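Thread: quick sanity check before group meeting

JM: Hey all, I'm pulling together slides for Thursday and realized we never actually wrote out the predicted structure for the chain we discussed last week. Dropping the sequence here so it's in one place. If anyone has concerns about the input, flag it before I start.
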Amino acid sequence: MADTATSAFYVPGFMDLSKYRLERTEPGAAWDKVVEAAPEGTIFSLSAFVEEVDATPALWLCHKGNQFAGAVALAESREDPRRTVLAPHIIHGGIMTAPPAARQNPAQALAEQFRTTAACFAGLAERYSELRFATAPALADLRPVLWHNYGADGPKPALDLRYTSYLPLTPHAGTMEQSALYAGCNKSRRQALRYARDSGITVQASTDIDAFLDLYARTFARQGLEMAAGEADFLRRVCSRLAQEDRLRIFAALTPEGDLGSIVVFGLDAKRAYYLYGANEPELRNDHCGSMALFHALHSLAQEGVSETDLEGVNSPKRGYFKLSFGGDLRAYYRVSLVQG
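JM (edit): ok, ran it. Output follows.
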């Protein structure tokens, strides 16, 4: 890759990217180890997701000389391999960096991550006429992307700001009201949880993917919407893959009469749990089943040893209010696009 040290805003030599190179790789166990180790790696870059989307997985390893420096997870258009797309249900992806070396201090680690991000983005810009991906929240330094073609002719990247919520989890053996999870909820959510418990709503773990898909489709129908073509098949495939790898957790809320009221679906990687999907029975949507399903799911995940969950998006008013009513910290991520020619 080219030496960009001639740019006036870089210290000479700092941006010598000539030793960096991108090499294409394939999904599989070796790739998944890379994703799990990278600070920016999430469940959405694992093989179970990238192999099931309606696009071609474009997975890249970045090396600095013979040393592993980072990786990139993209989805190529099947119609035009020079274009990458934002594949539905792939919430985070894009550039990942190697964990900092033990001998590096914070300043050195930040500089190396900066160069790796710059090298990856420059290499991708050479390969793709249209480049689109969504970052992970852990990729905090987007300056190498923002500064692509800085002070020069050529298209500039666009960054679309998005948010998700990260919620810490701690095991708890007491009553609901004594838990840190309950204490972190807002007043209306605590009231809904008490109502759900006192009215006899219960939650149980499930493995029934079909029940989830049926309820998911009816949730769309209630809103007058149709699921995208192939979406149900994708959800079945990815849930089945995650279940085979023991990465899937489904929780179902039941009314006192035993009727299904709500389902929430989580996925696990080595770092955290991810709220993947949720669905509510249209006729019972005001019975607080959804609140109890999510609360119980978070409690169960904490008991399992999960220390953090990504509630996967708070980018619409109602959905954002519901998820943030359980507490959590806002984390920014970006949808990056670069269109050339």
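AS: nice. The chain has two domains: 20-161+334-339, 170-306. The chain has a mean pLDDT of 92.
JM: adding both to the slides.
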